[in-house]
Amino acid sequence: MLTATTRPHAPPAATTLYVAFELGNSDWKLAMTTRVDQTPLVRAMAARALKTLEAEIARAKAHSNCRPRLRSGAATRRGATDSGFIVIS
Questions:
Q1: Residues 13 and 6 sit within 8 Å (Cβ to Cβ)
Q2: Is 10 a member of any domain?
Q3: Backbone conformation region of residue 65, classed left if phi is above 0, alpha if psi is from -120 to 50, else beta
Q4: Of 14, 46, 56, 78, which sits 20 to 30 A from 23 (CA to CA)?
Q5: Is 7 inside any structural domain?
Q6: Residue 22 sits in which domain range?
Q7: pTM above the 0.70 mark?
Q8: How many domains does the chain have?
């Protein structure tokens, strides 16, 4: 009888959620994607609506099962690390 060779079951690699912001005085746009070749999900919201921002990111994280990374300038870095983001410059 032949024996089958098996590989250990490794957990799937963590996916990164890439988030881009366009910050205006009256409204903000948020674009999120998990891959560069994928069309981003774009959401518009009122400026400084932080609860809405957190809800949209949480929904995207739950949908794609990933951790957030933030690529932006100094204006959006405030509080980003406190919110659990990894800032990429």
A1: no
A2: no
A3: left
A4: 14
A5: no
A6: 15-88
A7: no
A8: 1
Of the two residues 66 and 18, the one the predictor is more confident about is: 18
Q: 80 lies in a domain? A: yes
Residue 3 CA to chain centroid, in angstroms?
44
Q: Is residue 74 part of a domain?
A: yes
Minimal CA–CA distance to 69: which of 15, 16, 13, 28? 16
pLDDT score at 14: 62
3-class secondary structure, 61: helix
Q: Do residues 36 and 30 lie in contact, with contact meaning Cβ atoms separated by under 8 Å?
A: no
| Edge-to-edge strand ranges of the sheet holding 66-71 | 41-46, 27-33, 15-23, 66-71, 86-88
Q: How high is the pLDDT of residue 47?
A: 93
Residue given tokens 């963590």 in the structure block: 14
